Amino acid sequence: MFKRPVLKFSSGAKLIAFAVVAVMLPTTVLSVIQYRSLVDLESKTKVAVQDSMRRTLQRVAREVEMDFRGLVKKSFDIKMEDLKNLDRIENHCAEIRKSYPQVGKMFVVSEPPSCPAKEFAIFCSVEGIIRIEQAQFNKNPMVRQMKEIYSSAWMMQHSETMKPDIFFWQFTCKSCSINESPHSHHYVFYPRFEKGNKGYKEPAGFAGMSLDDDYIRSEFFARIMPEMLGNPDIRIDGSDSVLAIFDEYKRELYASQPWLREPEVVIGFGPVFPRWRLAIGYKDKTIESLARDNFQKSLMITLFVLSLLIVGIILTLRATAREMRLAQAKSTFVSNVSHELKTPLALIRLFAETLELGRVKSDEKAHEYYRIINNESRRLTQLINNILDFSKIEANRKEYNMVSSDVAEVIEDVIRSYEYQITNAGFELDTDIEAGLPPALIDRDALSQAVLNLLNNAVKYSEDIKKIAVRVGARDHHIAIEVADSGIGIPRSEQKKIFEKFYRVSAGLVHDTKGSGLGLALVKHIVEAHRGQILVESAPGKGSRFTILLPASETDRAADGVGFDRGGYTVAEGANN
Predict the structure, then answer these.
(1) Contact criterion met (CB below 8 Å) for 569 and 524
(2) How confident is the model at residue 557 (pLDDT cuts 50, 70, 90)?
(3) Has residue 253 got a pLDDT over 80?
(4) What are the DSSP calls for 427-450, one per residue?
(5) Is 3.30.450 the CATH classification of the domain at 76-211?
(6) Could you give the residue range(s) of every CATH 3.30.565.10 domain in the chain?
């Protein structure tokens, strides 16, 4: 019967799958929503900027209107009986024109509804003051012209529900053009009302003034606009934004600074100059480009934050996976150590009981049992020492007793104590220890333990060719300790990991051979404590060579030790054949 294969996922794969579903999927959805929001914000930015520009222009127009309203009220704050004193009126007009150069002619036209016989008009200009009354009132061309202009302006401003207190009028006269340029006429009117025969207020004439078109075009805006644009309520960006005024023929009358583009927003400059236009825009960009820049900046910030989030997720996953691997390694370590402890203890107990019960028939056999008990106890002691030293290292309590010693002597003692086990396991041991080496500042016990761990690994991870070589000699102001074997070797991809705690290569004989995974980690730490380096040369099937480099003396230690890799090891090219 055919059985469907069952897919089994590791805990790390399940963790990644959960992270993708629980974290990456919502992050992706939020990113899409954020992008769509930025696109929507881009279009809304255009509308918002245009609306802001329009409100700015409206505030400018309103400020100009309020200035002229204040001017009119100040100019015509005169009692009727004072209008009979022409000298006083002429002086008042001269003061107004001196303070406000934009004022041209000032006038008052009085038409009392209850007494037509008291009609009069006063015109005050640079040429002088004129009073027109009684029979000349309706015949005078100046009076008739001003009444016609006022009537036209009143019809445009007046409604059944609202009577303006002050209103403005502007028209262009092509027949009175100067240098073929159309000339504009500007008027400000101030209606006057009196009680009539029926008891309610009726029109009683008007007062007002004309504005000097030449001055308005050439000097007025250049004088008042900079101060007005400095108002916090109207302030525009002086570096990019440009405010301009155009006449009815699109000729530029004023610009806050030179610009190269068409205006973004244009409105009528009413009510003071209803035929002219107020415009605003950017010096060298458009609203579309501004919105696009803001969109790109927001998008870059979003991508940056998203990148940080993704990097954080990846780092979290890596840390979690690392912790899971470490937990698995610790579990394997406990299992391996239990086996490592169980095997020598079982052998020691077995042979001790055999000796105790007197079952050994010959002295030679008893001597062999004693030797096995001694070797297994040494093996047990080494394992326990590794575990205890590693525990001290993890707790940052490991201390080294550094003394000036002969490295060759230390290595000879290690080989002498371990040589019997090596040769008894069928290995050929080749030693080459150079004489006359300079002393080095070392911890004798720690260095012995490091070399012993390397020798132990060489024995455990060799198959057919059982050959171990130990060499000690001088090398560039250093003392080099080499332990080489012709065993199974280490893949290059694994060589940087073998010095990690609990790490064991997961293939071949290395995987099948029990071990704690602490030996090389302890070697690395001991070499670091001696400010040295450990080099690895290995290839699968061609053996391995571990080389410990130690500063040869206190002088060399100070000079060369600073340059050592504090990581404790270097992966070298080549292999031991």
Answers:
(1) yes
(2) very low
(3) yes
(4) -EEEEEE-SSPPPEEE-HHHHHHH
(5) yes
(6) 401-571
